[in-house]
Amino acid sequence: MRKYKHLFFDLDHTLWDFATNEQETLTDLFNSYNLNGHFNSFEAFFDCYKPINADLWIKYRHGQIKKADLNVGRFHNTFLTVGLDQPKLAEKFAHDFVAFNSQKKAVMPHTFELLDYLKAHYQMHIITNGFVEAQKVKMEMSGLRPYFKKIFISEEVGAQKPKVAFFEYAIKSCNARKKESLVIGDSLAMDIKGAQDFGLDHVFFNPHQTSHSEKVFKEIHSLSELIGWL
Ligand SMILES: [Mg+2]
Question: Which residues pair with 151 in a beta bridge?
Fold first, then answer.
């Protein structure tokens, strides 16, 4: 008898390999926009972009800025560091980034092996804070879509992880019981905190073995560890 009936997977960095896909997309765009005339190298551009993007995501999650301010602002602010003050260019770049990035197909190691193993035994769902137009395309293009019954995207739910309202909505929409539900995600601040606050068992996927002091229900370093455990 299996303990869980419903598995709620985070998408970015848990199943869909965001880091690989993002780097590929930005490399393509860096070249097609001829940014090497402004930045010393792609690495210089990317190193500049990363903290700006992370900072704006935090502000977006706290409701301090709107989606467009995040999406365009991260590139505009990156361009500004080399004196390139071109909001229109940033807007086009941001649009291309979301459009092209979501077409990318890289998934984390063992993703399909795990999903093929799980599909006969569980109802699987996605819980994600990403943009609606991006997340749905990512699911289709990467081949993940057929494995999942429902996709909960914060923009559509009206609340973001780690808010209890987000998890409550997802569980209720699936007619799931809390005891029969498991959350699997790579973010302590969003997936794991949300699961803990709402009282759900959870798996912290920590592929880089980052040290932390959180008490988690279960921690894995590879998705393959769930084969057999579930
Ligand atoms: Mg994630």
Answer: 126
φ, ψ of residue 60 in degrees (nearest 5) = -65, -45
Contact 181, 217 (CB under 8 A): no
Mean pLDDT rounded to a whole number for the chain: 97
The span from the CA of 154 to the CA of 12, in Å, is 13
- Are 188 and 205 in contact, with CB atoms under 8 Å apart? no
Q: Express each pLDDT in 20-32 by its tens digit.
A: 999 999 999 999 9
Does the pTM surpass 0.90? The reply is yes
Prior bond of 162 cis (ω within 30°): yes
Residue type, 211: S
CA–centroid distance, 50 to ligand 1, in Å, is 16
State in Å: Cα 114 to ligand 1 middle.
17
Ligand 1 mean position, distance from CA 129 (Å): 8
CB 186 within 8 A of CB 207: yes
Asked if residue 30 lies in contact with residue 45, where contact means CB atoms within 8 angstroms, the answer is yes
Instruction: Extract the tokens encoding 28.
Output: 């393509």
Phi–psi pair at 185, nearest 5 degrees: -160, 165
Distance CA 70, CA 55 (A): 9
Ligand 1 centroid to Cα of residue 190, in Å, is 8
Element at 47 (helix H, strand E): helix 42-61
All domains in the chain, ordered by first residue: 6-17+107-226 (3.40.50.1000), 19-101 (1.10.150.240)
